[in-house]
Design brief:
Elements: E1 8-10, E2 15-16, E3 24-29, E4 34-39, E5 46-49, E6 57-59, E7 69-72, E8 78-82, E9 87-92, E10 101-105, E11 113-118, E12 123-128, E13 131-138, E14 143-151, E15 156-160, E16 165-170, E17 176-183, E18 186-189, E19 193-194, E20 213-218, E21 221-228, E22 240-245, E23 253-259, E24 266-271, E25 274-279, E26 284-288, E27 295-296, E28 301-303, E29 316-317, E30 331-332, E31 340-343, E32 347-350, E33 355-361, H1 364-369, H2 373-380, H3 387-396, H4 406-435, H5 438-441, H6 457-469, H7 476-492, H8 499-511, H9 515-523, H10 531-539, H11 546-557, H12 562-571, H13 575-584, H14 593-602, H15 606-624, H16 636-646
Parallel strand pairs: 23-28
Antiparallel strand pairs: 1-33, 2-33, 3-4, 4-5, 5-6, 7-8, 8-9, 9-10, 11-12, 12-13, 13-14, 15-16, 16-17, 17-18, 17-19, 20-21, 21-22, 22-23, 24-25, 25-26, 27-28, 29-30, 31-32, 32-33
Helix pairs in contact: 2-4, 3-6, 4-7, 6-8, 7-8, 8-10, 10-11, 12-13, 14-15, 15-16
Length: about 650
């Protein structure tokens, strides 16, 4: 398989740590995304590394027994270490505080601590087999204050740091889940919910393992993902992932089912709002997008993998060591290894090899794996880094070899402009709210983020349409149809079409001598009136004489002042067109000769300058009986320039009657 076939890859620069062995224990903290390598209980050193940490944190601590759990508070201010099932030890890591330890015992008698989670830089939650205890750490006093606790039988727990929600598995079977939400010193109990097990369990032992549950934020909403190894319906084979939506308020609901159509060992990640399911037996992965249309039965949407199963792209482990030694070839990494541990949302750790990777989605290979262009666009527009790929898809569908049909092209344009319109509306609402002064009263007024899914007219013009219009081999009818289709789509979403798109249409029509079509487009206002467009039409008069009148009609419809029209034409170096226009409305006796001669000289076209100069000489002769310019017209430099280029004899002589 070529590189263009893999749509998942491990990040280029993984976090490298000392691999796990009998002396070195490895821990991972999901909140800070840090790996702790603890040697000999910390006595011979602890090294902490995270994906964004330039410099790892290294320290030593006294070996007081086997470390069960070790984590820094947010911002790495306080270290918490659990060594027994009853207590957690703390030490301050701020520069001015002595590294003295202080200890907190769990409050509930006979309870065993299953683990702990930091919810802020000074707030921590102990999870015991008998409940949950929420503390504030007071580092200067070196003690803890209990803020709130709740008694409940706990089998295991799970923490989602992005949403600050802890999930507790309760009851004998373990399938009743109780969420708690933490924010700024408060702990809120959310409604509990039950996970439907594949079949009624025969025994009364724990039936829901934490291995089969994950928590992740997908499209801004928190979901609990349950890996059900056998479907509840007997006629369906294979495992499935059931998504439960866990809102901040209201009951948790089962909303999506992802059909895996296979059995075996699975692991879940969430990358760029996609659910990635790894399958160990076949060493492949599949991706699901819950925003894409699935089979909806009124309450639940069934989804199938977006793409065929593929392996993660083969990965080479660079050989570390001095430069001469590293010339040996890198070692291929064993993908889907049984020693891999997966954490949410996108982390894969190989403790035996000493690497932490972030899983990434590659969009370019997906273009060829998803033939349905409409579905492909729906998929791409939801991805973080999609713009270059979206533009390349648009260019590709307009090439001779991969040419799409007009209905498909229309669908793609509509999907792009739907996103574009959404952004323009949000931007407009924000501007109106600002003008109405809401910014003072409402702190929630935020400028809408311009995501990569916003592909505007200048993007399309620059990267797709202007290059497309220059293709010689493309049938002209198809070319015009595509340009008009894009304009139709913009109009459909009530987006003002930029003049450069109309100009592109006109230039393309002129290039192919399709003047009749051009006339019709203008007559029936298919192309919207604008000053730049009118100027372009004036410049086309030599190819197509009626363009002059079409242009003037357009300028009049725009109720443009005549002198403004002249200014626009002169700025576009359309000196003759400006002169024709001013003659057409009978204003040529009052115009400034100098302005026109300046403009003619700037074009560096000597024959044009001659024509304009001669026109004004003739006007002077007609009005004053003498072709020469009066001092008040300030044309001395132009007369000198005329003599220099054409000689004295070219000047017009006064005619006498």
């Amino acid at each position: 398989m070529g590189e263009e076939d893999y749509y998942l890859e491990l990040c280029e620069r993984p976090v490298h740590f000392e691999k796990a062995n009998p002396v070195n224990c490895v821990f991972f903290d999901e909140a800070n995304k840090q790996v702790f390598a603890v040697r000999s209980g910390g006595a011979t050193g602890v090294v902490v590394k995270g994906p964004d940490d330039r410099n790892p944190i290294s320290f030593r601590m006294e070996d007081k027994g086997e470390v069960k759990c070790i984590k820094f508070s947010l911002e790495n201010k306080i270290l918490a270490v659990q060594r027994t099932s009853k207590t957690v030890d703390f030490s301050n890591f701020t520069p001015d505080s002595p590294p003295l330890e202080y200890t907190q015992e769990c409050k509930t008698k006979n309870a065993n601590i299953l683990g702990f989670c930091w919810t802020s830089s000074t707030e921590i939650v102990f999870i015991t087999d008998q409940g949950i205890e929420f503390y504030q750490v007071l580092p200067e006093k070196r003690n803890l204050k209990l803020l709130k606790s709740q008694n409940i039988n706990v089998n295991w727990y799970m923490y989602c740091p992005e949403s600050a929600v802890i999930l507790l598995s309760t009851t004998v079977l373990g399938n009743v889940l109780q969420p708690f939400y933490f924010r700024a010193g408060t702990m809120s109990k959310l409604p509990k919910f039950e996970i439907e097990l594949p079949a009624a369990p025969k025994s009364t032992k724990l039936s829901l393992s934490e291995r089969d549950i994950a928590m992740a934020t997908i499209y801004g909403q928190l979901y609990v993902l349950f890996l059900r190894h056998h479907s509840r319906t007997s006629n369906s084979t294979g495992a499935e992932v059931v998504l439960y939506h866990l809102p901040r308020e209201g009951a948790c609901k089962k909303t999506h089912i992802l059909k895996l159509n296979r059995t075996g060992k699975f692991a879940l990640n969430v990358v760029d709002n996609l659910v990635v399911v790894h399958h160990q037996d076949t060493e492949t992965s599949v991706i699901f997008d819950i925003k894409l249309r699935g089979e909806f039965d009124g309450t639940i949407t069934l989804h199938h993998p977006v793409l065929p199963a593929r392996s993660i792209q083969p990965y080479q482990i660079p050989v570390a060591g001095p430069a001469p030694v590293t010339s040996q070839s890198p070692i291929p990494c064993k993908l889907y290894s049984s020693s891999w541990i997966v954490f949410q949302p996108d982390i894969i750790i190989s403790a035996s090899q000493g690497y932490l990777w972030n899983l990434q989605v590659k969009l370019q290979p997906i273009v060829n794996l998803l033939p349905d262009k409409g579905r492909l666009m729906d998929f791409l527009l939801q991805r973080r880094e999609c713009k270059t790929v979206v533009l390349s898809v648009c260019s590709q569908m307009l090439t001779e070899s991969d040419r799409a049909t007009l209905p498909v092209i229309a669908t793609v344009f509509d999907k792009l402009n739907q996103e574009y319109k959404k952004y323009l509306d949000a931007e407009q609402s924000y501007t109106l709210a600002l003008e109405a002064g809401q910014s003072r009263s409402g702190p929630f007024l935020r400028r809408p983020a311009r995501t990569q899914a916003v592909v505007d007219q200048s993007d399309m013009y620059t990267h797709v349409l202007s290059a497309f219009a220059e293709k010689k081999e493309m049938p002209q009818k198809f070319m015009i149809a595509v340009l008009m289709e894009y304009i139709r789509s913009l109009n459909q979403f009530q987006i003002t079409v930029q003049h450069y798109l109309h100009e592109l249409v006109i230039k393309t029509l002129v290039q192919h001598n399709l003047f009749y079509t051009l006339h019709q487009f203008l007559q029936y206002h298919v192309l919207s009136d604008s000053k730049p467009l009118a100027c372009l039409l004036l410049s086309l008069e030599s190819f197509y004489p009626p363009a002059h009148q079409l242009s003037l009609d357009m300028l009049k419809r725009l109720s443009t002042a005549n002198d403004e029209i002249v200014e626009v034409l002169l700025s576009k170096h359309q000196v003759l067109a400006a002169l024709r226009f001013i003659r057409g409305i009978g204003g040529h006796d009052n115009i400034s000769a100098r302005k026109f001669l300046d403009a003619a000289k700037q074009t560096e076209d000597h024959m044009l300058f001659y024509t304009i100069f001669r026109f004004f000489e003739q006007r002077n002769q007609r009005l004053r009986g003498n072709p020469s310019f009066t001092p008040g017209e300030h044309c001395e430099e132009h007369v000198a320039f005329f003599k220099q280029v054409f000689g004295d004899q070219a000047l017009m002589r006064p005619t006498t009657f």
